[in-house]
Write a structure and sequence with these properties.
- The chain is an alpha/beta fold.
- The protein has ten helices and eight strands.
- Strands 7-6-5-4-3-2-1-8 form an eight-stranded parallel beta sheet.
- Strand 5, helix 7 and strand 6 form a beta-alpha-beta unit.
């Protein structure tokens, strides 16, 4: 078994334990293995170990590896978890099965237009900037209700849930609780929250999707 495959099993075990500790059914949390910056040779052992749900941050990077992987493994489910530009909406709708990062009117409209043009219906999440951080994407918490309503009522988009990335220096549980509160009052079932350092906590707060990268694939080498 490869190191990544071994780490995958460890993460799955921790998710099962977190589900049990939270009194949630086993399998109620979807593990999104975040493969950004890793190439096909690093991803294949994780697929061979049984993982079928993967996440990527950038449309262009995903296009360089996932069409070939999806051709070989038809049951792969690919999630876009990074910021989306409107000029990439066409490619995103064509390639991804789930989009976690709708965060403004322009993106929502571009996604809507491409879904109609392509006849594809990816699952959609709205990203909420729970920490109000200027460098991060996401609708502000105080604007989230109105944006959900706009996406649903004006654009006719079937929004599945909400996504957040808590500030690195704050208690993530506070942000997970806030996201859950916003989701509950809008009747949204999906909660995409929790990463390598805090996914156990996210499960306790009701996450339906956790996005785990380095705990599976190891430390990333980012370009200088």
């Amino acid at each position: 078994m490869s190191d990544a495959a071994s780490r995958l099993q460890e993460v799955k075990t921790r998710i099962l334990e977190a589900e049990r500790d939270a009194g949630r059914p086993a399998g109620s949390v979807t593990l999104v293995a975040v493969s950004k910056t890793f190439d096909i040779e690093h991803i294949e052992p994780v697929i061979a170990a049984g993982q079928r749900v993967f996440g990527e941050n950038r449309v262009q990077e995903a296009q360089s590896k996932w069409p070939a992987l999806k051709e070989r493994h038809e049951d792969i489910e690919l999630h876009l978890i990074g910021p989306l530009q409107s000029n990439k909406a066409k490619d995103a709708v064509a390639l991804f099965d789930v989009i976690h990062t709708i965060d403004r009117d322009k993106i929502a409209r571009a996604i809507k237009a491409e879904m109609e043009a392509q006849g594809r219906t990816p699952t959609l999440f709205i990203q909420v900037n729970t920490g109000g951080e200027p460098q991060k994407a996401g609708v502000l918490p105080e604007d989230a209700d109105a944006f959900v309503k706009c996406c649903r009522d004006e654009l006719g988009l079937a929004i599945e849930g909400l996504m957040c990335i808590p500030p690195a220096d704050e208690n993530p549980g506070l942000h997970f609780a806030l996201l859950r509160k916003i989701a509950e009052r809008n009747g949204l079932a999906g909660l995409s929250m929790g990463m390598s350092g805090d996914f156990d906590t996210a499960v306790a707060f009701g996450a339906t999707h956790v996005r785990v990268g380095s705990a599976i694939f190891g430390t990333r080498d980012y370009p200088a």
